[in-house]
Amino acid sequence: MKKQAVSFMLCAVIAMVITPVALNVKSAKAEGQGCYKSFYSEDYNSGTKIAGENEFEHFPIASMCKIMTLLLCFEEISEGRLTLDEKICASENASGMGGSQVFLEAGADYSASDLIKSICVASANDSCVAMAERIAGGEEAFVQSMNERAAALGMENTVFINCTGLPGAGQYSCAADVARMLRELMKHEEYFAFSKIWTDKIVHPEGRETEMANTNKMIRAYSGCDAGKTGFTNDAGFCLAASAMRGNMRVISVVIGADSSKTRFDRTREAFDYAFANYTNKIIFEKGIPLDERCPVQGGKISNVSVKAKDDVCIFTSRNDHDEIFYELEFDRIKAPVKEGDAVGKAFIYKNNIQVAETILLSNENVKKISYFDSLRKAAEYWIL
């Protein structure tokens, strides 16, 4: 009871002293809608901050640590060192993990796909350790890789001591860092095959089944939400990192230390609603769509070539702003022959005269090199004229 009273007093103090950024969260707390320790939201494409409170403060994040565990799993797959159908033997150490689990059988083989699915859906600690042992030979070495990857991503306010998020001294992160690692995880398209699962089961080798239900209730409760990770321990409180997409705009929201599960989901819903209502991504280039401009080609059967953007380019902006957005093209000195898909230059995008993005320009067609006889024919046509 004493701990509950202290927590309540801390929430009240936080509610009084935090100045909201962009969102009127102070009034929401005053109306008894719950409190939390930290919050952050951003645009996925640009990484631009939308709102935040204590987003760089150090807090335990419970099972949101598994975002980094999953990131290393999918990077292992991308590098070709792991396949989803590979069979992985669950050690006695892995099967004995406490907390959230799917009750792996020691000595039994499970597919990497099932283990990853159980991490995404059921936040399975035993599956995390099984994957850590497969990838790095042990959890300790795997945690070292987690910290190295965090450093490479610029996560300056994060330290991992395990791959599960179970309580431990010296393990912490911050809302902005959690958003950064979720953003990195979502670059792996395979992840979404698991993150959107609502209910499923894992079948153990001897036929026993463990039912699973997604701990991220936003998957069903909020239109466009298709990714995220929950977390809870007594020290961390209720946590949630989630992402939702509508149209061409994707938003990431992170809540740490909420006083209830309802609060973390309500706060996330509020963050999504605010972002989609007040911001937009203006489309500058669509991947593969030809531009009006053409690139000059030397020594080709035609003198210029149609070009297209290598990537989609959208500029994050407030719906109420009247930003001046324009682009400039810089073509390379291109000589025939040219193949469709060859890089021929770059496009630089500016917002209010400040460069905010760039993309490579690709040839949209083939251009053959002019032959000697083509040259003679062109010269003859010139003299005839």
Structure description:
The chain has helices at 2-17, 25-30, 66-78, 92-95, 112-122, 125-136, 139-152, 175-185, 192-195, 218-221, 261-278, 372-384, and strands at 38-43, 49-53, 87-89, 109-111, 199-203, 209-213, 225-233, 237-246, 249-258, 279-285, 290-298, 304-309, 313-318, 325-331, 334-335, 343-351, 354-363. By secondary structure, it is α+β, with helices and mostly antiparallel strands. Strand 5 and strand 6 (209-213) form a beta hairpin. Helix 3 (66-78) crosses helix 6 (125-136), helix 3 (66-78) packs parallel to helix 8 and helix 5 (112-122) packs across helix 6. Mean pLDDT is 90; it is low at 1-32.
Gist of the model:
The protein contains twelve helices and 17 strands. The protein has helices at 2-17, 25-30, 66-78, 92-95, 112-122, 125-136, 139-152, 175-185, 192-195, 218-221, 261-278, 372-384; strands at residues 38-43, 49-53, 87-89, 109-111, 199-203, 209-213, 225-233, 237-246, 249-258, 279-285, 290-298, 304-309, 313-318, 325-331, 334-335, 343-351, 354-363. Strands 14-16-17-12-11-15 form a six-stranded mixed sheet, with no helix packed on it. Strands 2-1-9-8-7 form a five-stranded antiparallel sheet, with helices on both faces.
Biggest sheet record? 6 strands, mixed
* Number of helical stretches of at least 4 residues: 12
**Shape by Cα distribution:** globular
Strand content: 25-35%
Radius of gyration: 26 Å
Strand neighbour order, sheet with most strands: 14-16-17-12-11-15
Average pLDDT rating: 90
Runs in which pLDDT lies below 50 for 5 or more consecutive residues are 1-32
